[in-house]
Design brief:
The protein is mainly α. It has one domain. It is built from five helices and no strands. Helix 1 packs antiparallel against helix 3, helix 1 packs across helix 4 and helix 4 runs antiparallel to helix 5.
Length: 116
């Protein structure tokens, strides 16, 4: 059960970041701090991202009750990082270099070692 909740927490956190980026790309007339704030509170994509953050936080909190922080945190951040990099490349057409791909391989190897 903890493993499934952990996977859900990781995915929700990554999806939240992706939604926040997608919402931030909405066309705007001005980019002042007030405009950014108004976009945050009125943009349904950003609001969905915040909800995903909240749900992911709840799931992650459950995982922390059951698992050591020294294991959970590196896995949460690194796997989320890999998901966000790949989604950014796929959805936002961001560049994915050989060094980034190499880093992803190293991250996955590191997660495997931490989780053992």
């Amino acid at each position: 059960m903890t493993f499934a909740v952990f996977i859900i927490a990781i995915i929700l956190n990554a999806v939240a970041n992706i939604l926040m980026k997608a919402g931030a790309l909405a066309p705007k007339e001005n980019t002042g701090i007030t405009d950014v704030f108004l976009n945050m509170v009125s943009n349904p994509v950003i609001i969905s991202g915040v909800i995903c953050f909240w749900l992911g936080l709840a799931a992650y909190n459950y995982v922390l009750i059951k698992t050591d922080l020294s294991v959970a945190y590196p896995i949460m951040t690194s796997i989320g990082y890999v998901i966000v990099i790949l989604a950014s490349w796929l959805f936002f057409k961001e560049t994915l270099t050989f060094f980034q791909l190499s880093g992803i391989v190293l991250i996955i190897a590191g997660v495997w070692m931490v989780a053992r």
